[in-house]
Amino acid sequence: MNHAAYAYQDLGGARYASTELTRGPWSPEHQHAGPPSALVCRAVEQQAGALGLTHIGRLTTNLLRPVPLDELQVALHTDYAGKNAAHFSGSVFGRDKEVMRFTALAQRAVPTPLPGDLPGHPLPLARKALQDCAPVQFPFAGQYRGYADLVQTRSSSGKLFDGPCLVWFGMNHPLVAGEDPSPYQRTAVAADSGNGISAVLDYARYAFVNSDLTIHWLRQPQGQWVALDAATHFGPDGCGLAQSALYDEQGLIGRAAQSLSLRQR
Q1: Residues 6+ apart with CB under 8 A from 135
Q2: 14's torsion region: left (phi>0), alpha (psi -120 to 50) or beta?
Q3: Helix 183-191 with 34-49: angle, nearest 10 deg
Q4: Strand runs labelled E in the chain
Q5: Are 56 and 109 in contact (CB under 8 A)?
Q6: Please, what is the Cα angle at 163 between 205 and 168, to 5 degrees?
Q7: Full-model pTM
Q8: DSSP reduced 3-state for 213
Q9: Superfamily of domain covering 8-109+126-264
């Protein structure tokens, strides 16, 4: 595998060569789910944009099996396209197996003035601004080249992998070679890390892998940084939920949720 400075290379025909920058923390042979989720988001943006729908309202990815560090193929279908919204579905394949299944909603963005006294508005800002946060590293950084090298992180308070946490995410490298990732794609790269940054159990003793990821965007995100204000909770039956409020530097952009399966290593 080449020492590339991007997560994927577009091979044409909805096929992508994966690089080591997609490697996740659970196994050196598998990808972090953030980059392939962002690859799906990119495909949805392109197909929705061709219909004049420029806002991605929701993306849900179901993780059927670990995503291999290998060539991927994205199959995308338009289930319904109307004047103001379109629904999409599809799958990601790796090594001839379906590894992810997804659905998405795209909407037409129309400037609409809001009343000045609308409750909950203007949208709240992240509880600590990007410029007030110090650089931090993931606990698995340095073990091998992977996701921790793809992104850069800044934390406002607390400690990574040690309870509720707010972390700003930027990208050190493009998602696809030769392209600047969109703010939607940057959100998807980061949002799958909610269960990691807010972990409440020892990463070395427990695995708390998510089986899905749902991102809701209430508006179009802006800029190159995304903040996750995340918290993880577990029930007594080995199941749990990680939830993240999502921000750009202008304020709240949406929320993400992950269903977790907890196992002792």
Answers
A1: 152, 153, 154
A2: left
A3: 150
A4: 8-12, 15-18, 55-63, 72-81, 85-94, 97-107, 134-136, 151-155, 165-171, 206-210, 212-217, 226-234, 239-248, 251-264
A5: no
A6: 115
A7: 0.95
A8: strand
A9: Acyl-CoA thioesterase, double hotdog domain (2.40.160.210)
Residue type, 78: T
* Residue 174 vs residues 7, 21, 38, 135, 170: alpha-carbon distances, Å: 7, 10, 11, 20, 11
Domain boundaries, the chain: 8-109+126-264
Q: List the chain pLDDT tens, one digit each, 265 residues.
A: 457 899 999 999 999 999 999 999 888 899 999 999 999 999 999 999 999 999 999 999 999 999 999 999 999 999 999 999 999 999 999 999 999 999 999 999 999 999 999 999 999 999 999 999 999 988 888 888 999 999 999 996 667 888 999 999 999 999 999 999 999 999 999 999 999 999 999 877 888 889 999 999 999 999 999 999 999 999 999 999 999 999 999 999 999 999 999 988 8
Residue with tokens 């400690």: 159
Q: What's the rounded Cα separation, in Å, for the pair 141 and 58? A: 30
8 A C-beta contact, residue 207 and residue 238: no
